[in-house]
Amino acid sequence: MNEKLRDAQTDRLFDAILGLETREDCYRLFDDLCTVSELRAMAQRFHVATLLDEGRIYSDIAQETGASTATISRVNRCLVYGSDGYRDALSRLKKSKK
């Protein structure tokens, strides 16, 4: 985790997110919190992470998602060298589908 990101304001935001109970709660908060472009970009990066985790290749991912190869590369770098945020979230999603 990048310690430069840690502060009281970010902690409070994350606490608010952790307190959400439904998908509709998430839609309402993120609609207020983010622009449509910001939210779409986050959703796209998470989709890219999902496809990379499935072993898909960059060209297929770019075609399916519309993400640039730079975005795909950055997400892949996070999957390989990051804080395991993507990996943890993907793992939890897989477990919840069982």
Order of helices and strands: HHHHHH
Q: What's the alpha carbon Rg, rounded to whole Å?
A: 15 Å
Mean pLDDT: 95
**Oligomeric organization of the protein chains:** single chain
- Number of DSSP E strands: 0
Largest sheet: none
> How large is the share of residues in beta strands?
under 5%
Low-confidence stretches: none
Ends distance: 29 Å
Summarize the structure.
The chain has 98 residues and is mainly alpha-helical. It contains six helices and no strands. The two termini are 29 Å apart.
Characterise the protein shown here:
The mean pLDDT is 95. The radius of gyration is 15 Å and the shape is globular. It has 98 residues and is mainly alpha-helical. Helices cover 74% and strands 0% of the residues. Helix 3 (36-53) runs antiparallel to helix 4 (58-65) and helix 3 packs across helix 5 (69-81).
